[in-house]
Amino acid sequence: MTTPRGFRDRADDSLLTLLGEIPELVRNLVIAEVDAAKAWLARTAKDGGWGAVWVFAALFVLFWSVPVLGTFVIAGLSSWWPVWLSALVVFFAMLIVTAVLALLGILRFKRIGQRQNPVQSIAQDVKEVRDEL
Q1: Pair 71, 9: CB distance under 8 Å
Q2: Is 3 exposed, middle or buried (0-12, 13-18, 19+ CB in 10 A)?
Q3: CB neighbours of 118 closer than 8 A, spacing ≥ 6?
Q4: Does the pLDDT value for residue 25 go beyond 90?
Q5: Which is the most buried residue in 43, 61, 83, 123, by most CB within 10 A?
Q6: Contact 65/96 with Cβ under 8 angstroms?
Q7: Which run of H or E residues covers position 41?
Q8: CA 45 to CA 48: how far, in whole Å?
Q9: What secondary structure letter does DSSP report for 16?
Q10: Does residue 101 have a pLDDT over 90?
């Protein structure tokens, strides 16, 4: 007889039958945990890589935008404002762009810590087994 979820009802199985299935169940559990660890590692590496890309983009903008674009905008704004005020406005605008790009990178890095580590999952499984014994 099967249950609504499709699992076999083991109430009528003998003790020896149940004991004989333990190695297969343990093997399946180990394989599932290894697969979960691989998937977690792949997602973590991807998020770490993308986070590094965003932070690198922020550094690139900060390094190259200040002298090139900054000079251009300062020259344009100096026709209305004094040169020192134009330079100050452009500097703070570049800092805001840098902060936004860095924030995108930091948020991507924080995704790494939000997922459950497979080691934690294994520890939880072991704890549950010990509680049953």
Answers
A1: no
A2: exposed
A3: 33, 36, 37, 40
A4: no
A5: 61
A6: no
A7: helix 22-77
A8: 5
A9: H
A10: yes
